[in-house]
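Throughout this chapter, every protein is written as a compact record of paired, labelled lines. The reader may check this reading against the record printed directly beneath this paragraph:
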Amino acid sequence: MSTTSVRPVEILLVEDSPSDARLTIETLKDGRLLNSVHHVTNGEEAVAFLRRESQYQDAPRPDIVLLDINLPRKSGLEVLGEVKADPDLRSIPVVILSTSNHEKDVLSAYGLNANCYITKPVDLEKFIEVVKSVDHFWVNIVALPPKP
C-alpha cells in the first residue's frame, strides 16, 4: 500500500563528490516534479542548513537527509550526532549513503540513531537503482514526520 505524499518532499543531500551528487540529484528529480532536492557539500554547511543559519536562513526544513559519512570540515557521523541530539531536528530521518562498508562505520551510524545505512555501489546502474529505491521507499511508502 502506498502512502504517496501530496505535498512536496524536501530532500537535503549532503555529498562532497560532484559526480555522486549530480547523479543522485538527477535520479531523485527524474519524473518527480513535487520533490525538491537541496545540496550541500560539507558537514558544516549541512548543520547550518538544518539550523537555518547564515546563508540558509530561508532554507526549508528537510523531510529527509541523505548523508555521506566522509565529508570535509565535519564528518557525516558528527553531523548525524548533532542532528539526533537536537530536539528540533531529531525527528528528521537520516539515511547514510556511503562508500564505506566498514562494520565500525555501520555500527557508529546506527549507534547515533541513523534511520538507515546504505553502501553506495560502485557500478553506475546499481548506484542509480539504489537511489531510486531510497526515493521510492522514503517518499512513497514511509509516512514522514509532519513538519513542526
Q: What stands out?
A: The chain has one domain: 10-138. The chain has a mean pLDDT of 90. The longest strand covers residues 10-14.
